[in-house]
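User: Here's a chain of 230 residues. Predict its fold as tokens.
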Amino acid sequence: MAKILIVDDQKSVLMTLEALLTPEGHVVISATNAIDALHHLAAEPFDLVITDAIMPGGGDGYALTRTIRKQAQFTNLPVILLTGKREKSDVEKGIESGVNDYVVKPIDPELLLAKINNLLTKEEPTQDSKQFLEAPVTFKAEWDTKTEVVAVSELGLTLHSNVPMPVGKIVRVNSPVFAEIGIEKMPMRVHTCEELPGPDGGYKIHCQFVGLTERELTPLRLWIRSKRHF
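Assistant: Prediction complete.
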């Protein structure tokens, strides 16, 4: 169970998110503007913030996130930006403001809940806890060094690399897997990085897509299902 602050000027969105999160056991507090949100954050602790990108009244979600990141006590507070803007420039703007993830409307409930669960825990997901199908693959990838994509899910990629990636860092991995799926290269946030045992060593790294839209989610789901063996 987590305490989640939702910030949106549309009450219908607040009600929808509350209806989605409350049955999961989360405590939801709502604010309709950035100023009220900052008052809530100053008065009580939260585990996660979900904020709309565009809000009237002198503050938007980007500015709210930048203000949160300037305060030391909120350095590790996860922030999800919720918006109808789909352009890559908007995703980059969200990343630069310091958000942990960028969720595009219309909201996919299962995907949003999975992203929230991943942000609320730093533990590597187990086979029993996975909410989405994952396809084992072998694709070359490049980051700062040679890296291999070993699995693809609706949340992101699993990589094997001979160097670690810092948890929380936004990375952009070059790999033909994106062309194979039929989507553009996606920015990703490193969720976990685990050192592998044995003589070969290396690191197993889980990365989450940032700013995945419905246009990209559909071919991704179809591609994963085509790769799975039943």
